[in-house]
């Protein structure tokens, strides 16, 4: 009897095991057959979703007691807005190729806290993590979006389970894309993002400098508005967490809420100072002051409230601020307040982008390119237009300043002599800058051409002998690769100092390229040999260099020499060509000697 019960238990266990292996395939309604002939596939039509009321549910419990997944059908069905529940996605992918294929699974929405992708194969389960709240070193791929690699053997079929936990809006559009298409798309997106954030940085810093120069608060308010907005957008797009503050974890979403609410606060201050509401529209000035007090409370609330509530408050506050400022600007425009019309037009664009952003987060608008990037497009246009308006104000202040200066012209004439001396000194400085390398202070190419022209002319007049030395550093590239370009620049500066120290007073030293240097030596006697000079240069350059970080590095040098006499019809180009050929001959002989030495040692 006990044996029969034991056998029955074994059979039941085997059936459960087989059922567990079969469940992932049984519940999927569709199968994506991925062909290498197509660069990408949207996974929404092939996916199913399920809202987990219990955040502690794991993949094992999901497989043991499979819930009722719903088919998504369209990408809009994966935009869940501010749902409190975690979401599980499931889809099947089959490699429709007789060869192994590599794919990437990419989530388009970057503001997802935790995304875990489980790849169920017949013999194994692979788990990968990513998300804006996950430290960069723990992500499946160091990217601003949740991206995972997927390798499929020939005709292999796998089931993908994805667990998404996020405090913000859950827009879960994701796709299967080839690595080539992914990196091409990534380069294009990074270009536009870099352009966008470069514009924000330039406008913020420019207006901040104007504030320090003109002491006009409108420029400070605009800079703070741009700064808060840029901080929020930088975090929202995933670039901030990728490059700067991935250690924030769950507080990444709080930083977005803080940035947007702070930007709303600064926007009201900017509108008051830009439109001069205290003079032209006192009632609106009081309304904006009251609303700004509310905005300061929301800034504090975003630090204290739970993150989902802080994000909801962010959306409401941002939308209210944009709408209120639009109404204020419209009223000022009717009252013919200076620059009010441009303000209204600019703020209308921003309101449109902010409204699309908020309504998309609330799942009231479908998810697409416009709704995903609407706030960036609107803010870019709005800030450009406001920058033009601020530039107009700057010109107005400049004209006022010029009129004031014209009244003091008589007193300023006494300073003409001093000013002329300063101009002369500035001219000398500019001439030095035009002929010298910024990094090493040696001659640059332009300065080398001018110096060589004079040296060759003197050489022909007096019949002297002239030598050109071309120095090419060896083993320099590994310093850049291992220690960074700042260390490489430091090494170049040290080499330049050693070359200047060895050169004679009338020698001309130049940096010819990245790690190439030129020395032109005039008035060399016919009996003089350059061998001791070359030996001293080689010994000096080979001496170890202590980097600022404490590391010690060294480089070697290959030197090519060309000479000419006064009677020779030599030019800088001919000397450079000859020295370059000789330098490469030296480099080749050194390489051959190194090879022979290595072979003998082995």
UniProtKB/TrEMBL annotation:
The chain crosses the membrane at residues 191-212, 224-247, 253-275, 287-307, 313-332, 344-363, 369-391. It comes from the Bacteria. PROSITE patterns: GGDEF, PROKAR_LIPOPROTEIN. Signal peptide: none annotated. InterPro entries: 7TMR_DISM_rcpt_extracell_dom1, 7TMR_DISM_rcpt_extracell_dom2, DGC-Regulatory_Protein, GGDEF_dom, Nucleotide_cyclase, Rev_trsase/Diguanyl_cyclase. It holds the Pfam family 7TMR-DISMED2. Residues 464-599 form the GGDEF domain. Keywords: Membrane, Transmembrane, Transmembrane helix. Its cofactor is Mg(2+). The keyword Magnesium does not apply. GO terms for molecular function: catalytic activity. NCBIfam families: GGDEF. PANTHER family: DIGUANYLATE CYCLASE DGCT-RELATED, GGDEF DOMAIN-CONTAINING PROTEIN. This is GGDEF domain-containing protein.
């Amino acid at each position: 009897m006990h044996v029969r019960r034991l056998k029955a238990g074994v059979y039941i266990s085997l059936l459960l095991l087989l059922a567990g292996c079969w469940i992932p395939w049984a519940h999927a309604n569709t199968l994506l057959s991925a062909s290498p002939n197509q660069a990408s596939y949207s996974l929404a039509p092939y996916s199913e979703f399920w809202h987990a009321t219990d955040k502690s549910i794991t993949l094992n419990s999901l497989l043991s007691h499979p819930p009722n997944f719903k088919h998504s059908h369209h990408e809009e069905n994966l935009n869940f807005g501010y749902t409190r529940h975690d979401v599980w996605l499931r889809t099947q992918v089959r490699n429709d190729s007789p060869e192994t294929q590599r794919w990437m699974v990419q989530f388009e929405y970057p503001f997802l806290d935790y995304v875990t992708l489980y790849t169920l194969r017949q013999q194994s389960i692979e788990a990968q993590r990513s998300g804006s709240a996950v430290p960069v070193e723990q992500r499946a791929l160091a990217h601003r979006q949740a991206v995972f690699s997927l390798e499929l053997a020939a005709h292999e079929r796998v089931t993908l389970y994805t667990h998404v936990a996020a405090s913000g809006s859950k827009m879960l559009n994701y796709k299967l894309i080839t690595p080539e298409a992914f990196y091409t798309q990534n380069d294009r997106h990074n270009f536009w993002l870099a352009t966008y954030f470069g514009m924000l940085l330039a406008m913020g810093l420019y207006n901040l400098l104007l504030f320090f120069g003109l002491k006009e608060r409108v420029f400070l308010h605009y800079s703070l508005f741009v700064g808060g907005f840029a901080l929020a957008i930088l975090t929202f797009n995933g670039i901030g967490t990728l490059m700067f503050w991935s250690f924030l974890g769950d507080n990444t979403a709080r930083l977005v809420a803080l940035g947007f609410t702070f930007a709303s606060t600064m926007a009201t201050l900017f509108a008051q100072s830009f439109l001069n509401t205290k003079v032209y529209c006192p009632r609106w000035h009081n309304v904006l002051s009251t609303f700004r007090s509310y905005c300061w409370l929301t800034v504090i609330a975003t630090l204290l409230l739970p993150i989902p509530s802080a994000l909801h408050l962010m959306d409401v506050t941002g939308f209210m601020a944009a709408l209120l400022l639009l109404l204020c600007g419209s009223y000022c425009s009717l009252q013919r307040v200076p620059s009010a019309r441009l303000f209204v037009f600019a703020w209308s664009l921003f309101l449109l982008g902010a409204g699309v952003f908020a309504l998309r987060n609330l799942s009231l608008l479908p998810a697409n390119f416009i709704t995903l990037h609407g706030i960036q497009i609107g803010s870019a246009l709005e800030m450009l237009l406001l920058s033009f308006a601020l530039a107009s104000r700057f010109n107005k202040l400049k004209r006022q300043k010029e009129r004031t200066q014209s009244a003091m012209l008589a007193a300023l004439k006494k300073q003409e002599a001093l000013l002329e001396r300063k101009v002369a000194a500035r001219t000398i400085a500019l001439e030095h800058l035009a002929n010298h390398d910024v990094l090493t202070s040696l001659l640059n190419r332009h300065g080398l051409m001018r110096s060589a022209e004079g040296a060759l002319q003197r050489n022909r007049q007096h019949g002297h002998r002239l030598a050109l030395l071309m120095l090419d550093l060896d083993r320099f590239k590994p310093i850049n690769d291992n220690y960074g370009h700042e260390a490489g620049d430091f090494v170049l500066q040290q080499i330049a100092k050693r070359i200047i120290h060895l050169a004679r007073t009338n020698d001309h030293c130049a940096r010819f390229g990245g790690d190439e240097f030129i020395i032109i030596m005039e008035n060399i006697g016919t009996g003089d040999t350059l061998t001791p000079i070359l030996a001293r240069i080689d010994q000096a350059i080979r001496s170890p260099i202590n980097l600022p970080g404490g590391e010690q590095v060294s480089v070697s040098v290959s030197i090519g020499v060309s000479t000419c006499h006064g009677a020779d019809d030599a030019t800088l180009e001919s000397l450079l060509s000859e020295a370059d050929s000789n330098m490469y001959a030296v480099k080749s002989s050194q390489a051959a000697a190194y090879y022979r030495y290595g072979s003998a040692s082995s």
